[in-house]
From TrEMBL:
Family of this protein: Belongs to the arginase family.
This protein's UniProt keywords: Hydrolase, Manganese, Metal-binding, Polyamine biosynthesis, Signal, Spermidine biosynthesis
Cofactor: Mn(2+)
InterPro entries reported for this sequence: Ureohydrolase (IPR006035), Ureohydrolase_dom_sf (IPR023696), Ureohydrolase_Mn_BS (IPR020855)
Signal peptide annotation: 1-18
Protein name as it appears in the record: Agmatinase
Natural source organism: Cladophialophora immunda
GO molecular function: agmatinase activity; metal ion binding
Stretches assigned to coiled coil: none
GO terms under biological process: putrescine biosynthetic process from arginine, via agmatine; spermidine biosynthetic process
SUPFAM superfamilies (UniProt xref): Arginase/deacetylase
A Pfam family assignment: Arginase
Length: 388
């Protein structure tokens, strides 16, 4: 950089006299990219001024520093995208510790070191941010916190608006796909009520310590229909509504059920096969990948990751923690192993940042899980059954 002292001061603009500082400030990493910045610039940032617009640690916190798009705008004319992150700040369907309404912002905070310009994967040597897909953060859906029925209707509508826009890269994919940042697990029901429009009924790969197919009469006590729709019954209801296929699977199950046999039978009736947490000790990561792939085949797949699938040592910040779970590395390896499946939607839910530790163990894990889900979508484009 040319020092200001090598030129007469009157030749320089006033802003450069004292210090070599640009505004808005850029992160040291981005500044050091120097002349190489353009080579690493993602499609999402092309045409922008890297000194002014690369935003790691600056600006507002979006997932992985992706651009924000007002996907829920009433206008038809918004920036196009192929994959969208959408926050679902909702936690009034929980049966234990609340707090997942702050999950979306927590997961974004956990992802703040990720950026398209520096995301070359050490395992695959690919950078899925720089592939064919334009990936954006839509912010959060506006959800009331006093009425679950209305909030889920709002979330379903948000999903429909976001997925009804024409994709950016129509030669590859016609319909944008959504990765939801939860939110308690009830939010997955709203996503599935939307995905059926474009993709039909789907196989759900459900990473969780709990089965979440409880009959509302069992979990909720049959008090009211309102109480019966919660984060432990949404898969039962999704089955009743015909949203999911009988080729679905749970992975990481270890929590007890309420009834000796009814809950297991009902789970099977809802279309699920169970892979327990301890199965990994017998068949390993690759065995679990093989089972999941065999189960869903070439159907369209929705992947839902309840962060409580991880052991509380790896994810303490969740509502219904169960000991004896998987490590973060095991989960990431299993997710990567699902490459090639037709992933039409995904979520990371039940992240309640208030219970996290100063090392941010849970939100870091959740951010990386969301990144891996995004990568699965980039690796395998899927054409919809019905266009928007
Ligand atoms: Mn769950």
């Amino acid at each position: 950089m040319l020092s200001s002292w090598t030129l007469p001061l009157f030749l320089l603009p006033a802003s450069s006299i004292a210090r070599d500082v640009v505004f808005p400030p850029v992160s040291p990493l981005q500044a050091n990219l120097g002349g190489h910045a353009s080579r690493y610039r993602s499609p999402v940032a092309s045409g922008k001024d890297p000194l002014a617009e690369f935003e790691k640690y600056s600006g507002l916190t979006t997932f992985a520093n992706l651009p924000w798009v007002h996907c829920l705008s009433p206008d038809d004319d918004v920036d196009k995208y192929d994959i969208a992150f959408l926050g679902a700040p909702f936690d009034t369907g929980t049966t234990a510790r609340p707090g997942a309404r702050f999950g979306p912002s927590g997961i974004r905070w956990g992802s703040r070191r990720m950026q398209a310009a520096a995301a070359w994967d050490p395992y695959t040597h690919e950078n899925t941010f720089l592939g064919w897909a334009r990936i954006v953060d839509c912010g959060d859906a506006p959800l009331t916190f006093l009425d679950n029925t209305v909030a889920l209707q709002q979330l379903e509508k948000a999903h429909k608006v976001v997925s009804s826009r024409t994709a950016n890269t129509t030669e590859v994919a016609d319909v944008p796909r959504i990765i939801t940042l939860g939110g308690d697990h009830t939010t997955t029901l709203a996503a599935l009520r939307s995905t059926i429009d474009h993709w039909g009924p789907v196989s759900v790969i459900h990473f969780d310590s709990h089965i979440d197919t409880w009959d509302p009469k069992v979990l909720g006590g049959g008090i009211s229909d309102y109480a019966g729709l919660n984060h432990g019954t949404f898969l039962h209801i999704a089955h009743e509504e015909g949203l999911i296929l009988n080729s679905s699977a749970h992975a990481g199950i270890r929590a007890p059920v309420i009834n000796k046999s009814y809950d297991w039978k009902n789970d099977k009736r809802c279309g699920f096969e169970i892979i327990t947490a301890r199965d990994i000790d017998k068949i390993g990561v690759s065995g679990i990948i093989d089972k999941l792939k065999a189960r869903v085949g070439d159907t369209n797949v929705y992947i839902s990751v309840d962060i409580d699938v991880l052991d509380p040592a790896y994810a303490p910040a969740t509502g219904t923690a169960e000991v004896g779970g998987w490590t973060t590395r095991e989960l990431l390896s299993i997710l990567d192993g699902l490459e090639g499946l037709n992933v039409i939607g995904a979520d990371v839910v039940e992240v309640a940042p208030i219970y996290d530790n100063p090392g941010e163990t849970t939100v870091l894990a959740a951010g990386e899980v969301a990144h891996r889900l995004m990568s699965l979508m980039v690796e395998t484009p899927v054409k919809p059954l019905r266009r928007p």
